[in-house]
Predict the structure.
Amino acid sequence: MAPEQSDLLTDTTFATLGVAEPLLRALDARKFHVPTPIQADSIPPLLAGRDLLGIAQTGSGKTAAFSLPLLQHLAAQHVRPAPFAPRALILAPTRELALQIDETVRFLSVHLRLRTAVIIGGASRFKQVETMRRGADIVIGTPGRVCDLMQTRELNLAGVRHFVLDEADRMLDLGFIKDIRRIVSALPMPRQNCLFSATMPAEVATLAQGLLHSPVRVEIARKEETAPKIEQFVHHVPQAAKTGLLLSLLDDADLSRVIVFTRTKHGANKLATVLEQKGIQVNAIHGNKSQPQREKALREFRTGRARVLVATDIAARGIDVTGISHVVNFDLPAEPESYVHRIGRTARAGAAGVAIAFCDPTERGTLRQIERMAKAPITVVGDAPPPEARSAPAKPKRPGQGQRKRFSPRSRNGGDRGSLRTAA
Ligand code: AMP
């Protein structure tokens, strides 16, 4: 789904930003008529050869923001790709994100003679090496497999003139810092660098400082754009009753494309099996699934063949599926940051969405941390916390707790929500 009109700059066009004709045609074919703010701010300095620090998340249009100038630079150089030696390297934290970037780069470069190679784990290494042997202008990869091919000299970074590090914060979360350092140290100078990150913790700032030279900083506010469009609910429910609650919620057809987060791979499999037995089209996606299984699960979810995707955090990172109506936190994440990341799967690119959390009495401490972090009201629905939860340092019961509610975007029952809030 395209970003909302209010997120677009109506008096700016891609042409006025300096984007060249073959790319304009590709943009037109995809109905990208108006640049998003991150595109409007990033494209001119990147075309001018500057380094860039972009603070923006998936959904902002950042992929085209860095890809358009990159493609324009490469096309202007008129050189044939040499075996094993790309001229541009784009690193992403997950296989899925790498594939999505590849998809964007391919459609944008449809009128250019440029070749891309996707170098990711879980896919045929042999085929990737063959692609490199034939020569690719752009490598889009995940750090592990990129390092692997560097080591065997099947990927030579000495010709890289453009480097993009996408979702730097997730890279560090996933423990890729050593691989990134190895890759960066193999890159030649001079080169153009871009670093994108949704958040800017100290480690990312340090990484950016070492990598970027006098960068232009472009920041797209995150919470203001997305948080108000996500309605957040919490349902106090004992662990053992969570599956039953989910099944009853799924009776509502408004839950049309639902991603359900569990804490463990085993939990994801178990839940998917139960849902399947109840006739719900569902797939599970987690670290033990092979790359083809993950891709199939995502494809079926994207096309609507599967209504529910049960996922663990790591597997879900970088998934960009539009039209997710509901995110269910079947288990609360240990890290409040993950909650924000999880619920960001819905309300993509300006659409509205609903996030529902299931909170067992043992998870109430985590819920309080999440409430502080989310900076948005999380409405209590369903039954009041069971008595054992009250021995924990619980909040006073609010009027209206214990009512059962439906979960639809802009729900019909929205009128009395103020009295149900647990946090503001
Ligand atoms: P990204 O943040 O790069 O993952 O992009 C988010 C979504 O917005 C993707 O589905 C893109 O296809 C879409 N998109 C990006 N730029 C534009 C644009 N200028 N106009 C319409 N849709 C866009």
Summary: The mean pLDDT is 84. Residues 96 and 318 are 6 Å apart (CA to CA).
